[in-house]
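Here is one chain, start to finish.
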Amino acid sequence: MSDDDDEYPNHRKVEWLVHLPRSDFSQSALYEIGAFITVFLIRNHASEFLGKAGQATGIEVGKAAPTDADSQPEDCVDDDVVTAGVSLRAELTTADFIIRRIMAGQSGHQFEDLVAHLLECMGYNARVTPKSGDGGVDVIAHMDALGFQPPIVKVQCKRTTGQTGAPEANQLLGTLGEGEYGLLINLGSYSQR
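Its structure:
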């Protein structure tokens, strides 16, 4: 089958130019893209998104043509779809709020304490490792009281909204022994490199 005979006629290749963390945008812009559908039109905050994309890539991005929100006919939307969209928006808004609070009000060490506390709330015994010389392991968690029985979870915490990549993951993987698992936690996303 050739590229022209694609079994998905609406398939379109995308070249990802840059990663832009959600925390870089205003809350109202995030509301607008907190869409529950795949294809949508950014009406009110197009210049904010284009500006950030241009700054990050160094590519001059054209200005969006103004649109009249009332000129587009409203689609009939199922109640379940609307409910799912509202739920997703609530989740994203809550996540954005929590990430901003952590970034503004906690140090890296306080973030490690928070992660340890969350693991304890999940039923693990967790302890934060010493602040220096931890080899990339910030929290150690286990189910038994003494910490001898597997599984033992070694956690590396990155208080960043940027991308965490392979070097950090490899550092954590290098600390793992038999019956041990690694958990890499950050506030942003993960890259393949």
